[in-house]
């Protein structure tokens, strides 16, 4: 873990100082600003600890739009997770997918837990009240939810559009992979995207996962109805609110950048039987390999 007092950062970051503002801005895409109550230079062997206010800045390639999210992989160009249409070739399949090859802020990543910046991230405010939903089978098992479910990040409301699953996990924690990962995809009124990632390890059964995978159709591109209660959907969110945060991209074509990534630290559990059911529905790995962090930093 690193503190944000006198950080050692890549050369591609730029710093601006004043009596109250300390800024590190990403060379390519989103940056961060960290406002201190007071800046005080301490010896390097001491920790600088001050109340922080975190705010993402729009810069570089900027914000991925809702259009990019809804049209991801739907321009008629086939892509997959293996062979000549697999992740290594996504960027060459279509000009619309060029960011998969050229992007410098791509997801997923391997989070270096001993090399992150401790800025006391504020808790994520969850307001999930899922009612009628639909579950479908395509590149993943996807659950589309009705309006009325949202989170609040940076004082802004992000509405939950859908959540889906990857096995094995796309995100790694200090090199560790997990059997399953859920992505909760949210969109603000301005079109910005925030993704909450929840990791699952083998253990006790999760009843909601069982329900979802039982209702999921065995045939691709078909939707089946699914009703989730507020209590049920909340069972997919860890009770501990700690998380890692970084800027990244969609993990499927078109790999658009400018996505807020919020990876929950506490993993949930699923049974071996539930994992086997998912693999029956998606009989191949559906995870994109981890991408280089490059000049990005990870906050906690």
Quick description:
The protein is mainly beta and 300 residues long. It has six helices and 19 strands.
List keywords for this structure.
mainly beta; 2 domains; eleven-stranded mixed beta sheet; four-stranded antiparallel beta sheet; 6 helices; 33% strand; disordered N terminus
Structure description:
It is a single chain. The protein is mostly beta strands. It has helices spanning 66-70, 90-93, 99-102, 207-215, 230-234, 272-281; strands at residues 2-3, 14-17, 21-25, 31-36, 52-57, 110-111, 117-118, 125-127, 132-137, 141-145, 150-153, 156-166, 172-173, 180-188, 193-202, 223-227, 243-249, 257-264, 268-270. It has 6 helices and 19 strands. Strands 8, 9, 10, 11, 12, 14, 15, 16, 17, 18 and 19 form an 11-stranded mixed β-sheet that branches. Strands 2-3-4-5 form a 4-stranded antiparallel β-sheet, with no helix packed on it. Helix 4 packs parallel to helix 6. The longest helix has 10 residues, at 272-281. It is globular and about 40 Å long.
Record the SSE blueprint.
Elements (H helix, E strand, L loop, with lengths): L1 E2 L10 E4 L3 E5 L5 E6 L15 E6 L8 H5 L19 H4 L5 H4 L7 E2 L5 E2 L6 E3 L4 E6 L3 E5 L4 E4 L2 E11 L5 E2 L6 E9 L4 E10 L4 H9 L7 E5 L2 H5 L8 E7 L7 E8 L3 E3 L1 H10 L19
Parallel strand pairs: 1-7, 6-13, 15-18, 15-19
Antiparallel strand pairs: 2-3, 3-4, 4-5, 8-11, 9-10, 9-16, 10-12, 11-12, 12-14, 14-15, 17-18
Helix pairs in contact: 4-6
């Amino acid at each position: 873990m690193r503190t944000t007092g006198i950080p050692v950062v890549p050369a591609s970051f730029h710093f601006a100082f004043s009596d109250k503002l300390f800024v590190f801005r990403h060379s390519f895409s989103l940056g961060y600003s960290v406002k201190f109550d007071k800046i005080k230079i301490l010896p390097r062997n001491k920790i600088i600890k001050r109340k922080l206010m975190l705010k993402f800045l729009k810069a570089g390639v900027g914000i991925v739009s809702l259009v990019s999210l809804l049209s991801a992989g739907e321009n008629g160009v086939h892509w997959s997770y293996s062979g000549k249409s697999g992740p290594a070739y996504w960027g060459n399949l279509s000009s619309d997918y060029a960011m998969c090859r050229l992007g410098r802020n791509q997801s997923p990543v391997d989070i270096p837990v001993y090399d992150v910046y401790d800025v006391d991230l504020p808790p994520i405010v969850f307001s999930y009240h899922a009612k009628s939903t639909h579950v479908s089978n395509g590149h993943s098992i996807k659950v589309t939810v009705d309006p009325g479910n949202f989170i609040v990040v940076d004082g802004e409301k992000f509405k939950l559009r859908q959540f889906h699953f990857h096995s094995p996990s796309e995100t790694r924690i200090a090199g560790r992979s997990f059997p399953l990962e859920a992505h909760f995809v949210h969109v603000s009124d301005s079109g910005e995207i925030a993704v909450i990632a929840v990791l699952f390890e083998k253990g006790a059964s999760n009843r909601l996962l069982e329900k979802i995978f039982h209702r999921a159709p065995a045939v691709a591109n078909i939707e089946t109805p699914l009703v989730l209660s507020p209590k049920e959907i909340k069972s997919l969110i860890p009770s501990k609110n700690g998380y890692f945060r970084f800027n990244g991209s969609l993990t499927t074509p078109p790999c658009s950048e400018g996505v807020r990534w919020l990876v929950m630290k506490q993993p949930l559990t699923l049974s071996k039987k539930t994992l086997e059911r998912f693999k029956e529905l998606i009989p191949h790995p559906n995870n994109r390999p981890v991408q280089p962090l490059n000049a990005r930093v990870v906050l906690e």
